[in-house]
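Session log. Operator J.P. requested a structure for one protein chain; no other inputs attached. Running the standard single-chain path with token output.
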Amino acid sequence: MAKLDKSLYSKEEIKQIRDAKRERKRAKLLKKQVITFPESKDKNVLVLKHGTKYSAEYVNKMYNMVSANLEYDFNFYCITEDPTGLDPNVNVIPLPSVGVTGWWYKPYIFSKELPIQGTILYLDLDLVITNTLNRLFDFYPGQYCIIRDFTRAMRPNWEKYNSSVIKFEHGQLDHVWQRFKQEHIMIMRKFYGDQDYLWDVTQGKAKIFPDPWVQSWKWEVRKDKRFKPGQSRGNREMLEIEHVEAPADCCIVAFHGDPNPHKCHDPYIVKRWV
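Structure written below.
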């Protein structure tokens, strides 16, 4: 294919051409994999992989961790535009093109168009499972449940949501997706991220998972002085090994921001990020 001569097009036209090229690539990748959906089950685990921030390894390890820590029969789904390298047990749902990037794809998890029935437990990929997930499914059956944002570590009365762990019924929050699909440009300008948008449209409607069940590794478990709550700069490599463990009633530790799990060399995490 001939190289694009930028002098012949406006910036907007160049963007449209590149977007069209990405869409053709996306369609080509999805055609390579025959997408078949499994028999419906009451319990489902859903993850989202887009772009290059997280590799297929993150999805596969999440599947392994869930399998080791969930006694219920379940289906595992991944919404993605690139299924390359995914474990055969991971059911792929094509990621739609809605003209957004980054975390702004997340509202799609609430779409009633998803080929899933029953209860959905959504998990971000930068989580490490440390204990049974049964309690998350058992907590307020049939209701929308979420965790408090980790700002709680420095502001105990903080009420806003963190969208890394969400439980809901299929179609229960379809309005979150429908509004975003229609007004995404305005919404992305108004809110910093998907969590702020989700708080705006669903505040007061969610049951909150107990804080000890899902903990911030750097702010609540490790409590390293270099990682003070709210800190936005500084050394986040976690090169120094710490022999700490999550509380016994903790079932998920979150690696929000930096570092991601693969950068953490603490034995407790290395053993569980399998």
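Operator note: The chain has a mean pLDDT of 86.
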